[in-house]
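<backbone_tokenisation>
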Amino acid sequence: MKADLKVALIGNPNTGKSTLFNVLTGLNQKVGNFPGVTVDKKTGFCILNDGRRAEIIDLPGTYSLYPKSKDESIVFSVLADRSNPHHPDLVIVILDASNLKRNLLLYTQVADLKIPVILALNMMDLANKSGLNININLLSKKLGVPVVPISARKAEGITALKEAIAYANRFALQEDTIDVEQLAPELISSIREEIHVENNYYALQLAHQHEYLPFLSPQQNDRIETLEEEHSFHSQKSQATETIARYNFINDVLFDVVTRKEHFAEKESYSNKIDKVLTHKVFGFVIFFAILMFIFQAIFSWSAYPMTLIENLFTWLTSVLHKTLPAGPLTSLLLDGVIAGLSGVLVFIPQIAILFAFISILEDTGYMSRVTFMMDRIMRKVGLNGKSVVPLIGGFACAVPSIMSTRTIENWKDRMITIMVTPLITCSARLPVYTLLISLVVPNRNVWWLFNLQGLAMMAMYLFSVVSAVVVAFVFKLILKSRERGYFIMELPVYQMPRWKNVGLTMYERSKTFVIQAGKVIIAVSIILWVMASYGPGKRMEQIDQKYSNASFTGKKSAEEVQRLKATDQLENSYAGILGHAIEPAIRPLGFDWKIGIALITSVAAREVFVGTMATIYSVDGNADKLDSVMDKMRNAKNPETGLPVFTFAVAMSLMMFYAFAMQCASTVAVVYRETKEWKWPVIQFAYMTVLAYAASFITFHLLK
């Protein structure tokens, strides 16, 4: 259905723009009190009070119409290009009511483009708490636009905002903020005449940004460049002059509009008081370390009961289906292939949900921004931009969106290094692998009455990934050459209570995404793997059937032992077994057998497929009458040569080291190519990570065996 009105939301980062977008549209979209959450424009629909349907367009957060990154350039492109499908009829500029002076700079630029504007003063509750008194009517009169006070987090003032949208005029009524023509009168006049534009500020923006605007033709670009040279136009000087003029205008506007209550004048905000502790150069890192420790303790302890329930559910389901369905290849495919593969991964949903709940709480309270600020000190020492911290922290969830978010990094070298090291950060796909292996070899007991050993082991793997990324970044700093200099500008939002509805929504959405994305891959891989593990070349399977049906053989062993030996023999002679044995010489120095080798190959599609592969392999290889969880099957697996457990402490640690470094994710390879536009970078990334994985695994195994 076509919208009657297109409305764009524009604002500085951390002004509550994405929160307002969710409130207006009702879409279940991620909202976080964290810089850089909105990386691309998002759309939704809102029914206005008069029954009309408005399309709401959420544009990336930006401090100015002069872009400092790729995502910020989207803003002016959408506002300037009338042929753009998202070009708005109306713009809502969202301001942080507690920091009007800085926020109004963007408003004055948008206003001078002469697009109809509404001002939404967000966080009015926080402004009132800090003692600010804002004369809404006077501000509206001085600017010539509707001004609506709101609190997006509490959904206050939304009805009034919808009324303002419904009654908004299609014509721009705002007052001029500065005399734009005086900035470059001859150039502006020439561009208006030759490019056929009516607005002075639009013409000036074309002079500043024409090289990055896709809607301009090559001829128009060349002509604007020529005009700049003819009129000796200096973009940076012009921007500086413009900014000074705009702040003079803003100061005049706010002089009578904003007052502060006397007893609040010298009062320090509670956010600043908390920051003195949480961002302290020593205690800040200690507190962050303690928070991480608590999170990973919780991941293991809180998830134990629901994980056991899920394991028991799948064991019961498999048992019922084994008794209900007729024996045959299709039943084996369903039970030993699809269900076994899925059960091996779905059991980890509680841990995934708990991890994302904590991440959502840290973002929503504003603490994650403080982590970014603290980590900037370390990042700069290894040659990274402070903005690299956002993708790296996002890497704890998934490397794919994190690599996409590097678009906010202006410096080419900093961006490339961030892209190259982000996959080293432990993502949620590694969580099932680590959990499985840690549960196999690390005792589930507390030390010092407080810390669970398994939780400590998990935290160690996460911290190890961060250290690895920093060290590799330093190496890339020495290899890659660039003369650009990076900088880091970030606003620390005030501390706020987390929105528990949003936390619950994040848990649900991320868990659902994990199940859908991982499930599709796992089902496909499980089916292929079951076929490869159930059939072999030539008449090998028939010969094995004959061998184990021979009375001279069966008479010496129990039926259960014959069945186990037959299943093992069939697996070794299957296509999967042949492939595993083919690569076994290369991975034997790492402590891996041919079955683990099969899992290493299948998990190139996605890391979590390792667990599903182990479940399928040991289901095909096991006794159909003995239904254990994948963890039990792996714990009971024995080396046929030595009779010792396959998954010893040395082997499990070696495997974790391999997965800590290896690029076992096809989606990450694809997104690196898409972001760099060259195959060279994903190839280099895959190669160096594979070499690191092999070396780290080799060293770990031989030190611990």
User: Anything to note?
Assistant: The mean pLDDT is 81. The beta strands are 5-11, 42-47, 53-58, 90-96, 117-122, 132-134, 147-149, 258-260, 446-447, 451-452. The first strand starts at residue 5 and ends at 11. DSSP finds 31 helices and ten strands in the chain.
